[in-house]
Amino acid sequence: MAPQTKPVQEDFARMVDIGGGRQIWATCKGQGSPTVVLLSGHGNGAEDWSLILDPNDPVHQTPLDDVSAGLGKLVTSDAAVFPSVARTTRVCTYDRSDIRFTGEVTTPRPQPHTVDLDVSDLHSLLAAIGERGPYVFVSHSYGGLISTLYARTYPESIAGLVMVDTVSEVMQDLVTPGALDWWDQVNAATNDVVREGVMIKDAFAQINAAGTMPKVPSIVLVADKPFHEIPPETLQGEHTTFTDWLAMVNKLGANLGAKTITKTNSGHNIYLYNPKLVIDSIDEIVDDVRTTSTASTPQATDPAARPTAAGQEDIAGTFDIGGRKMYMQCTGHGSPTVILISGGGIAADLWDSPLGKQPTVYPTIAKTTRVCAYDRPGTTRARAEGGISRSDSVPQPVTPSSSVADLHALLAAAGETGPFVLAAHSYGGLVARLFAHQHPTEVAGMALVDSFSPELREAMADLWPSWIAWNTTPAAIVKDYPDYERVDFDKALDEFVANRTIPPMPLVVLTADKPYPAPTQPGIPANINIVTREAQDVSQRQVAQLVPGAEHITKTDSGHDIMLENPVLVSDAIVDVITAVRNGRTSIN
After folding, report:
1. 213 Ramachandran zone, left/alpha/beta (phi>0; psi -120 to 50)
2. Coil/strand/helix, residue 580
């Protein structure tokens, strides 16, 4: 089948800025869809997919996996996987941290590391280089764990899988705890040759806690040359064996419902021993994806097809808003465009954070329409490794009006046009409401997620000074990050004296229903959390009453960060607003 083309796809091999001070070396080549993404094994990188085992090397004829033992002549070849796949579709690969040590290298990280960091890096990389799905992931060894967690986290983006003798979480069901501990320690260890350490048991736990694996066309390739036995003097206690490995890979194939190929005439690095088999497997999955895509693509007359806007490419980067830059990322297609506005001090990651439950809001909304998230100056990243705002700093504290001006300029600089649905959390609720007041023709709907509001100050007037003291940014945070986003609460709320109304539009208000934590600062009334909870409930009802036909959701099973604790509920609320906008309604009900 002929390749399905995408707009202008440049060939490149370069460093890519993925935000948060990190860069990844990546290379892409070829034209067409789906994009094939090659994920290397433990300690290996992009270069491996352009190599083969010399066809004349006698290692091909030996019974054991000599390549994994460091034997055999590897040569760069046009018959290798990367250049071969590039002749039929788009293909990309990249280096993880601590793979190469000379030339342009991916930003290092502490080792050993966890698999979610690799998933986060890959997701950010694909967005930064503008490679839209669907993707066919082709993974070798440890790369299989990355592709599995990625597919469970972003199931809508994965169209097919080729697993090349990969590690799988099913190993924990096949070996003793002692053998699994040994294997975990071996993979976590680093040395002067292999500087990447991976945490296998942690990866298994993360995969088991993630969403379900999508049902997509899959092929699993199994090595049939045993690896060299480990010298007995290096083994202590229980360990995994080649028999265990074979059982693991075959069970993976069964679990995926995959075509499993066990006659590979190859050791562990099948793409080196038998590149044609890997290439043929990729071509088979790509053809399957193209056939399915062609059959299921909605035509213009299909009422289920979502409305689209011209020029909607995935973006992730900084944009000049007039003397400084701000970070924004957008993905998906359709109208209206959803703008996700985080609460005070939190960057875009809030809506796609590995710290919360899955599936997260950002990729979920992208299935339905265009969605964007951005970093305000001085915010911090909602990830285990932390990180500061990818937007240039500004003087603090900020106000809703300055935040609205920034957002409006950023949308224009990024080429994002309305109508917009604003989905906002906490302080972001002030930004959304003022944006809608100042730019009423651009905003078609809103979802306010336990938002901060002028109604809260009125509902707890007696304890308001104590509330300010309770919520003032601690001095230690400001000392550590002087540019950290801070809000002058009274000044911020004073901006709403003449801007209290919300124009008629589909509106959903979501209110947390779990208690706020008790105060720990000295001098704060012990009941401030209880009073705040009651006042917030009152204020949220009042906000919902500002728009006729608004929906107020009070059963959220969540604390303040509803998008982390109950992301499905938040996503459903946003989709309800999108649907109402598309149907031409000015209210939810």
Report:
1. beta
2. helix
Beta bridge partners of 162: 138, 219
pLDDT of residue 291 exceeding 90: no
**Closest listed residue to residue 369, CA positions, set 159, 578, 572, 154:** 578
Tokens of 229: 């036995």
> With b meaning 16 or more CB within 10 Å and e meaning fewer, what string describes 55-78?
eebebbeeebbbbbeeebebeebe
In a domain, 279, yes or no: yes
Phi-psi region of 467 (alpha: psi -120 to 50; beta: other; left: phi over 0): alpha
Is residue 273 within 8 Å of residue 266, measured between CB atoms? yes
Name the residue range of residue 46's domain.
12-292
Closest CA to 223 of 273, 175, 161, 183: 273
* pLDDT tens digits for range 155-202: 888 999 999 999 999 999 999 999 999 999 999 999 988 999 999 999
Q: Name residue 65's beta-bridge partners.
A: 227
Number of domains composing the chain: 2
Cα torsion through 260, 264, 267, 271, rounded to 10:
-90
pLDDT band at 233 (very low <50, low <70, confident <90, very high): low
Listing DSSP states for 234-268 in one string gives G--S----HHHHHHHHHHHHHHHT-EEE------S
As a whole number of angstroms, the distance between CA 282 and CA 302 comes to: 31
d(CA 147, CA 44): 15
- The backbone torsions φ and ψ at residue 285, rounded to the nearest 5 degrees and listed phi first, read -70, -40
DSSP code of residue 204: H
CATH number, position 562: 3.40.50.1820
250 and 122 co-located in one domain: yes
